[in-house]
Amino acid sequence: MCVHETMKSESESLFAGGGSDSPAAEGNCAGKTRGGEQPEADGQSRSTTMLNSIQRVALGSLYLAGEPCRASGDARQIPELPKMKPASATCDWSGNARKVSWEKWRCPDGELTPDGAQSVHSSVEAGQPRCSEGTQEGKCATPPPADTTAPTLPAKAKTGAQTPKGADPRVWTERMQTALARGMQGRRWYTLMDKIHATKTLQLAWEQVKSNAGGSGVDEMTIARYERDSQTRLLNLRERLVQTRYQPKPVKRVWIPKAGTSEKRPLGIPTVEDRIVQTAIRKVIEPIFEHTFSESSHGFRPGRGCKTALREVEQLLNSGHHHIVDADIKGYFDAIPKARLMRLVETKIADGQVLALIRAYLDQGISDAGHEHEAGEHGTPQGAVLSPLLANIYLDPFDQHMAKLGLRHVRYADDFVILCQTEAEARAALEATRAWMEANGLSLHPTKTRIVDASKPGGFDYLGYHFERSRKWPSKKARDKFKDKIRELTPRNSGHSLARIIAATNVYLRGWFEYFKHAARHDLRSCDEYIRGRLRSILRQRAGGKGRGRGKDHQRWPIRYFTEKGMFSLVQAHISACQSCE
Q: Residue 251, SS3?
């Protein structure tokens, strides 16, 4: 019979009766009874009776706490009862009489919390005082108070409670979520490495890396090749993480075109295995920092993005914040001081193994065309999974600094604007920004940083949009990128059928419209005309003509022709979107 079923009625009577008044509590007292005799149950000794009663109370507690049933097939073991250490007449290190203590309770997740460690399964949940800041892990600044009652399991998060931002409930337990929701201000998280190398976390990280695809690193291991034996590889990876034998490999550097220019920018590609571990680290530590990030930050954050940043910019412009500090941090990802970045990470993370892993990723070598280079004292690898989170961690003090000065700004990663109501306020904001950047090892780009008045001709660009005189439309850089992509999808000498070309183009157009659907309709009309012109050029060449589609080609292949072929129209999509909003 199931342990829970046999103990259900007993546990309910134990806890519903309210203590010694309950019949089940009779016989628990070891004191004298009337007449000096203590009755024995079914011939058992007094000690056996007491032990059975204690076991029933403990098992009843487990039942009420929702612990798994052995008979149900759950492989987890029911936690053992805490053992009481015998009292001693000697004094402890504080000079006081030694207090009765017990071994730390083993939680249902199988984790042991060392004395004084500030883990999420220790004092913050059990209601016990934490160690003071600055004490060595495993040591307390003050002795724990005397308590002879059996320790209780930490309270679980309330049913239906909102999951903290960025916290995956498959990785973050209810206890961790509760601790984060209650607030960890001024306290650090000590026991996190076991969450990172947990089998479930690594499996989730691998699935995310696989869905993101991406190229191979310096070891030439592709996603498809890793997938063929993924379970064995993940078990091997977990074993090396547990035994602290895991070492990141150098990052492969490739050069990709820089949007809107003829220049190229470097992009780092870690190995598949390194991407899995970095994803696992991010799943565990991101909610800790996300919990206190500024509302002005929108880049690479759960539930936020370019659209939320643009919405806030437009709201501030409509409220009269027309004087804009359009700032650009010079080479931000390559200029972040690693030592200062790690000090910011250490304000919330105290797990030495996790910190060592993050340092190892920051110090990864770089393999460029077969030549390896050592990492310097500055910069985070662009393309690494952890880089966006680390970039937000480093600029979060800047967000807080702006808020203290009473300035309104919107930041997406290293791209931000400060919106002010007067020109004088904008100039003061620029000086304050420049001073903060210089004090923290960064610098503003001398030519790309400027102050503009959005209510006058000229305006400013932000996240692909151009803002000017209460209007917005795709920026010149965004339009140039659009045309480059359309030219790539519609070459004149393409051997594919027109239906296939249109289908491939529609995929890109739908995504582009989803981002730029708030632009004016006449701006979208010019984009439609450009696409039809490209398609007419293809048809003209196939009909024996030369050059671009022009003249009579407009009558030969009118707009209706491409509509019947299934071409996605940005203007028609805009009309439908406006009608649905009415």
A: strand
